[in-house]
Prior knowledge:
The protein is mostly beta strands. Helix content is 0%, strand content 26%. The strands form 3 sheets. The chain has a two-stranded antiparallel sheet with strand order 1-4. The chain has a two-stranded antiparallel sheet with strand order 2-3.
Amino acid sequence: MRQMGIKARWVKPYIQTTIDSDFSQDRKNILNEEFNPAHPDAVWCSDITYIWTFEGFVYLIPVLWIYIRGKSFLGC
């Protein structure tokens, strides 16, 4: 193999890290795209993701307060 320049090829095994779930039947849209809350602490928005580091996974969970300084935020 060395004389012919042939090398073994290693294929990294596929590992499923997330499982797709259908939450459409369990969750209800209680916000109904009304991003102008009447008072503070009425609407919060969040998401979760993970970032790979040398020590392992680090989870990032940003929480967005929709009611910002008396104005609504339309980015949620």
